[in-house]
Amino acid sequence: MPNIQALIQQAERQCQQRNVRFTPIRRRVLEMISSSPGGLKAYDLLDELATEHASARPPTVYRALDFLIEQGLVHRIESLNAYVACPCPEHAHGFQLLICRHCGRVEELHLDEVNDQLKIRAQTLGFDVDRQTIELLGTCDACRADSKGSAGGSPITHCPTS
Q1: pLDDT in tens, 5-17
Q2: According to the 3-state scheme, what is the secondary structure of the chain?
Q3: Which of 96, 115, 122, 127 could form an SS bridge with 134, CB 3.0 to 4.6 Å?
Q4: Are strands 106-109 and 96-100 parallel, antiparallel or unpaired?
Q5: Helices 58-70, 42-52: crossing angle, 10 deg rounding
Q6: Among residues 81, 13, 14, 9, which one has the least CA distance to residue 45?
Q7: Does pTM top 0.85 for this prediction?
């Protein structure tokens, strides 16, 4: 499990350095995503947030998610329409996600050479890339070892750089 408090403190520092507001709602959404054992969907966030803030509505959650993504604090898992905390928002953000289809565990990779090759190839084809999402779905070691595939997953635990 990532150190949620460390992620929140890092988010606070980053937002302060960028002179952007890290509001209580944004903080709470990041805390909820960070403590999830896998990706969280927007409406799951809304359901939990609504128990704490009666005024929470879908736009509230989506604005918070947009902000957190823009700041590199959260990633959207396109294939699952869910969100995970970024364990290393200090990286310039080209990343790949390894997603276990059984337990939901997500690992973030930073293989810059992959990103560079894709960017160069896109440019040679006359294409400007606005956003890139690379998701690899498979089975983690724990689920592979568990013949029933019922191993308990954990969210992003670290940020391997290779």
Answers
A1: 999 999 999 999 9
A2: CCCHHHHHHHHHHHHHHHCCCCCHHHHHHHHHHHCCCCCECHHHHHHHHHHHCCCCCHHHHHHHHHHHHHCCCEEEECCCCEEEECCCCCCCCCCEEEEECCCCCEEEECCHHHHHHHHHHHHHCCCCCCCCCEEEEECCHHHHHCCCCCCCCCCCCCCCCC
A3: 96
A4: antiparallel
A5: 120
A6: 81
A7: no
